[in-house]
Amino acid sequence: MKLASTVLVVASVFAPATALQGFGAQSIGYFPYCATACNRALGSNFLSCSFDGYIPGGMMDSDSASATPACRGSNMPFLSSLAYCISTHCNHDMGIIETWWAAKSTGSGGAFEPPKWSYQEALMNVTAAPTHVLTAKDNLTSTVLSNETSYRNQYGTLFMVDREEFLHEKYGLVLLMVAVGIPLLATWLGYLPFVNPLIHKLKPYIIWPSTIGSYQVRPLPYLGGTALTRGQALYVAAMAILTVVFMAVHYETYQPNLWYPGQSVELMAYVVWRTGCYSLALLPVVLLFAARNNTLLWLTNWSHGTYILLHRWVARIFVLLVIIHSVLSLVYYVKTATMILAWARHGGFGDAWELSL
Ligand SMILES: *[C@@H]1O[C@H](CO)[C@@H](O)[C@H](O)[C@H]1NC(C)=O
Ligand SMILES: *[C@@H]1O[C@H](CO)[C@@H](O)[C@H](O)[C@H]1NC(C)=O
Ligand SMILES: *[C@@H]1O[C@H](CO)[C@@H](O)[C@H](O)[C@H]1NC(C)=O
């Protein structure tokens, strides 16, 4: 059991790495959180149909109760307890709950199987309000109450994880759109009749001058490359500032978190996510700007030389993000591995650490 829970925690630590890959099914996340939290608060106890020949597969298939979706989907004590928990915690429309119920209530530890009864049917099975609160060593054989502490911690953990994920996906997308959007906008605005004269007036002051004396025409000493014009420097500054701001803002944490033991570990994980996401967002820009057949060359009036120059600077931001990502990942995994080993040695984690997936 101790080993199983250790494996589960390790699995949950690695889960965000797969979540990093952007949108797809992940963007749906754990919504509705009340239902997912109920499911997880009830999901690790044995059912009468547990161990019906099911051997847990890979990490994501781990299920501490070894109950298959088919087992869960036909097990009324599990479904009625789940339905009761949802009815006392959720305020969503019935349609949202039933959709989630049909798709997610039986878990993911094997081939997908929709439950035999709908949410409302399962709820009808509860004739008297349950009074027994499920504990870690109980077998789930009748309608029970979920542990409120477990529910709350599941809810807080999943909500924060999704919040952070949506946030950095949004910021990553903005980063990508701004990187490609600035040349497009700068070019197209120039074609507007009332903007054109203004740009012509400003060009000698903003766009053309070098940022460092006359170094635009000759390379900087010590392999510094070519100095940027003011226009190019503005682009680089915009990208750098945007990246720094998006790295710095809007962090929120939830403790006691079931994935990340301690606020500093949780924050570190979120920084790792963000650096990973932003570097992925900048990668297409790095490649596009360096390409000989850069589509932007057709769509904008910026020169190939400018794009090559900007390519180098965006690549520098990219590399910096990757380095922070790698170093922090290493620190993070060493730190959490040490914590996990220490706790395992001191008698494991207790039921709060057993996540069912
Ligand atoms: C609840 O479900 C069980 C198992 O299917 C069934 O035997 C029982 O009659 C149901 N009770 C009610 C009140 O529907
Ligand atoms: C729960 O079920 C398991 C597996 O069927 C069994 O070994 C165990 O003794 C049961 N525990 C309780 C408290 O009934
Ligand atoms: C619920 O779980 C928490 C944390 O695992 C535990 O401390 C508490 O005693 C449990 N409550 C009940 C009513 O079992």
From TrEMBL:
Signal peptide: 1-19
Keyword Transmembrane helix (UniProt): yes
Domain Ferric oxidoreductase: 275-338
Primary location recorded for the protein, binned into one broad class: membrane
Keywords for this protein: Ion transport, Membrane, Signal, Transmembrane, Transmembrane helix, Transport
Membrane topology: Multi-pass membrane protein
InterPro entries xref list: Fe3_Rdtase_TM_dom (IPR013130), Ferric/Cupric_Reductase (IPR051410)
Molecular function per GO: ferric-chelate reductase activity
GO annotation, biological process: copper ion import; intracellular iron ion homeostasis; iron ion transport
Keyword Methyltransferase: no
Subcellular location: Membrane
Residue ranges of the TM segments: 171-194, 233-251, 271-292, 313-334
One Gene Ontology CC term in the entry: plasma membrane
This protein's name: Ferric oxidoreductase domain-containing protein
